Fold this protein.
Amino acid sequence: MMAQPALSATLDLIGNTPLVRLKGPSEAAGCEIWGKCEFANPGGSVKDRAALAIVRAAEAAGTLAPGGTIVEGTAGNTGIGLALVGNALGYRTVIVMPETQSREKMDTLRALGARLVLVPPAPFANPAHFVHTSRRLAEETPGAVWADQFDNIANRRAHIEGTAAELWEQMDGRIDGFTCAAGTGGTIAGVGMGLKDRSDKVTIALTDPHGAALYSFYACGELKAEGSSVAEGIGQGRVTGNLDGAPIDTQFRVSDEEGLGWCARLLREEGLCLGLSSGINVAGAVRLGKELGAGARVATILCDTGFRYLSTLYNPDWLAAKELPVFGWLQGSDLP
């Protein structure tokens, strides 16, 4: 195995993440399922890529000057990425987050030196929604820039130029399908566009959690939600700027229970501790693999580490309160 090259700057640690074949999902799908290990980024998630791209774009545009402030509304991971990038480049960071997100994300943001503003959850149409609150804070703060991760296409450009190119190289150009969920839409749109630029034969599939409206939009042209999900950072009720023009060929809807099942299997069988969005992505990849058939090679995103959800997904009391299956080992037994 070749050693990774030495890097001259800490921000160069973002991206170029490993790709790994997932044994259990591959066996379940009857083909090859590969996971892009985005938890290996310095901030522990795929959102580091968008954070760096958004900051660099603001610098290039002249809207973010030395000593300035980055303001953003986020479920947590983009905020963590922005705080780390801001620290490395000398910017302050203000993060607005729904108070329902995991305690680990809140503690991490405070530990990184970000100013954390917690707001009650609210629908996007409500002016109190965390995105609108963050925009107002940016407008009221001298020298501040609003990251606007949902509609700022620097987000998806990070995946067109970075993630898609890496996947193509790592899979030697032999990739038949890609799928992941959408939060801002930057990953699914950017990777989809980047892969389609290389081969229009690659199938791009959206994997949507319950409670989101994009499955219905791509299936029948109507934004319509069904059910609910506890997954953080994914699920969308509108076509964001990043999703506009995304090359979605097919779509799946995955329940929390199915996603948690893959989280359990990947931890117990393959030693990967992941968040629920990763489990949902893997479930979608298995479905896509079954549709594409034997010999197919499908990639997905392993978004973040499960260590960010110890108080929720890996807490038996929390799972029981949400009427979700509790991992067997958390109750002193093996897998259910």
